[in-house]
Design a protein that fits this description.
The structure is a single chain. By secondary structure, the protein is of the alpha/beta class. The protein has a seven-stranded mixed β-sheet, sandwiched between helices. Strands 11, 12, 13, 15 and 16 form a five-stranded antiparallel β-sheet that branches. A hairpin with a 2-residue loop joins strand 15 and strand 16. Helix 3 packs antiparallel against helix 10, helix 7 runs parallel beside helix 8 and helix 11 runs parallel beside helix 13. Belongs to the class-III pyridoxal-phosphate-dependent aminotransferase family.
Length: 450
C-alpha cells in the first residue's frame, strides 16, 4: 500500500511538472503553484492523481452543467466521428442542420439562425462584427464589471480588470457604463432602477444614438460577482434599443442552458434580444463550440449579400453532435427545472449559514449561478477584499481559498467572492457536503470581521 501511494504521488507530481514546464497556465503566475492534477471526473466530482476526491462547486468554469463523464455524450461523439469529423464550413452535415433547428426551437421569438463558432469569445467577436455590419454603426455599449472573453475585441468589450494589462492593445469604439447593484447602492433599491436607466439614457445621448450599433449585456452576471440587474432594468434597455434602432445582444455564455433555471438568463427578465451569444453549457465542455443565434430580421439582410464572417471550425460536426446530445440530456433529465429547484434549496441553506457566519455580507443567486460576497463588517459593508484587490489585500481570502482546496473542493474564489455554481445534476446531499466545506473555510473569514 505504501509503495502504491508513493507511486501515485510521483505520478501526480510528474503530471504537474510537465504541465508547468511545457505549457502556459492561463490567468496565473507560471511557477510556484500547485493545481489539482485531475486523473478523471464523474458526476460532480474530480479525482486527483493522489486519489483525492474533489467536489466541483463551480462546474469547471460554469460550463460543466450536466456534470462529468456522461457516456451518452461520448457515444454520440464517437458515432459522429465514425461518419465524418471535420468538413469545410462551406459544406453541410446533417448534424449541423439538426442542431440549428433544435436551437431555433429553444430560442424565443424569431431567433432562428445559428452562426457556429468555437467558444464564447469568438461568439462575442462575431456578434459585435455582425451588429456593426448590419447597422452601419460602430459603437458597442457594455457594462463595467462584466466579462465577454479574452480575445482583443471581447476583452475590450468587457469591463473586467483582466483587460488592464493589455489595455494599450484594446480595440476601439467600446463604451462602458456603470450599473450599480442593490447591495452596495447607497440610495435604496427603490431609486436604483430609475437612476440606472436615467444614467444609461444620458450616456447614449452624449455618445449619439445614431453611432451605437448594439448594447451587449450578460443574461445574468457571472464572474464579476453575480451582480443582479435591478428588477425591470432589461425591459427598459429593450425599450431604449427599440427607440434608437440599437441592437440588443445577450451574452449567455455563462448564464445559458439551464444555469439560471431557464434556458437563458434573459428569460428571467421577460425580454427577447436581437442576438444570443452562447458557448459553455452548449456542449458542457465535452468539446469546444460556440454559437451566435441571430434573428430572422438580421439574417435576411444577407440572403443576397455576402456575409463577411467565417471560421475554419465553424459548425464542426463532432462538436455539433456533442451539443445535440447535451441538449437532449437537458430535456430528458429535466435539468432546467432541477436547477431552479436546487437553487431554492441552496438559498435556504445559505440563509441558515448567514446566522453563524458574520463574514457573509450578501448572497446573490439565480438558479445555480450564485456568489457569496464576504465582508469585514455587515453594517459598513467593508469588503473582505476590494474590487481588483492587490496581493496584500487578498491575505484573508487566499487563506479561505486554500482551506476550501485543502478540504477537497474546487470552486472559483475571486477578490471577496466565493462562487457557488455546481453542475445542475447536484443533489441536496451534495449541496450540503459542499456548503459544509465552505462553512469550515468561512471560520477564517469570520475571524477577520469586526
Amino acid at each position: 500500500m505504501m509503495s502504491e501511494t508513493l507511486e501515485n504521488k510521483v505520478n501526480r507530481q510528474e503530471v504537474i511538472d510537465n504541465a508547468l514546464d511545457y505549457t502556459i497556465m492561463s490567468w496565473s503566475k507560471q511557477k510556484g503553484i500547485d493545481p489539482f492534477a485531475v486523473e478523471r471526473a464523474e458526476g460532480v466530482y474530480l479525482y486527483d492523481y493522489s486519489g483525492q476526491k474533489i467536489i466541483d462547486f463551480s462546474s469547471g468554469l460554469m460550463n460543466s452543467n450536466i456534470g462529468y463523464g456522461d457516456q451518452r455524450v461520448t457515444n454520440a461523439v464517437v458515432k459522429q466521428m465514425q461518419q465524418v469529423a471535420f468538413i469545410s464550413p462551406s459544406c453541410v452535415s446533417k448534424v449541423r442542420g439538426d442542431l440549428g433547428k433544435k436551437l431555433a426551437e429553444i430560442c424565443p421569438g424569431d431567433l432562428n439562425r445559428a452562426f457556429f463558432t468555437v467558444c464564447g469569445a469568438t461568439s462575442n467577436e462575431n456578434a459585435i462584427k455582425l451588429a456593426r455590419l448590419y447597422t452601419g454603426r460602430h459603437k458597442i455599449f457594455t457594462r463595467y464589471q462584466s466579462y465577454h472573453g479574452a480575445t482583443i475585441g471581447a476583452i475590450s468589450a468587457g469591463g473586467d480588470p483582466r483587460k488592464i494589462p493589455v489595455d494599450a492593445q484594446q480595440a476601439p469604439n467600446f463604451v462602458h457604463f456603470d450599473l450599480p447593484y442593490a447591495y452596495r447602492y447607497e440610495y435604496g433599491e427603490d431609486n436604483l432602477l430609475k437612476d440606472a436607466v436615467a444614467s444609461l439614457e444620458r450616456q447614449i445621448e452624449y455618445e449619439g444614438p445614431g453611432t451605437i450599433a448594439a448594447i451587449l449585456l450578460e443574461g445574468e452576471s457571472g464572474t464579476s460577482g453575480c451582480l443582479q440587474y435591478p428588477k425591470g432594468y432589461l425591459k427598459k434597455v429593450r425599450e431604449i434599443c427599440n427607440k434608437h434602432g440599437i441592437l440588443l445582444i445577450m451574452d449567455e455564455v455563462m448564464s445559458g442552458f439551464g444555469r439560471t433555471g431557464k434556458w437563458f438568463g434573459f428569460q428571467n427578465h421577460d425580454i427577447i434580444p436581437d442576438m444570443i451569444v452562447m458557448a459553455k453549457g452548449l456542449t458542457c465542455g465535452y468539446l469546444p463550440l460556440g454559437c451566435v443565434m441571430v434573428s430572422e430580421k438580421i439574417a435576411s439582410k444577407y440572403d443576397d449579400v455576402v456575409l463577411p464572417l467565417g471560421l475554419t471550425y465553424s459548425a464542426h460536426a463532432v462538436s455539433c453532435a456533442a451539443a445535440m446530445e447535451v441538449i437532449r440530456i437537458y430535456e430528458e433529465d429535466h435539468l432546467i427545472e432541477r436547477a431552479a429547484e436546487m437553487g431554492k434549496y441552496l438559498e435556504s441553506r445559505i440563509e441558515e449559514m448567514k446566522k453563524i457566519h458574520p463574514s457573509i455580507g450578501d448572497f446573490r443567486n439565480t438558479g445555480l449561478l450564485g456568489c457569496l460576497e464576504l465582508v469585514k463588517n455587515r453594517q459598513t459593508k467593508e469588503p473582505m477584499a476590494p474590487f481588483n484587490a492587490k496581493p496584500d489585500e487578498m491575505m484573508v481570502m487566499n487563506k479561505v481559498a486554500a482551506k476550501i482546496k485543502e478540504l477537497g473542493m474546487y470552486t472559483f474564489v475571486r477578490w471577496g467572492y466565493i462562487f457557488i455554481a455546481p453542475p445542475l445534476i447536484i443533489t441536496k446531499e451534495e449541496i450540503d457536503k459542499g456548503l459544509a466545506i465552505i462553512s469550515e473555510a468561512l471560520k477564517i473569514a469570520d475571524e477577520a470581521t469586526y
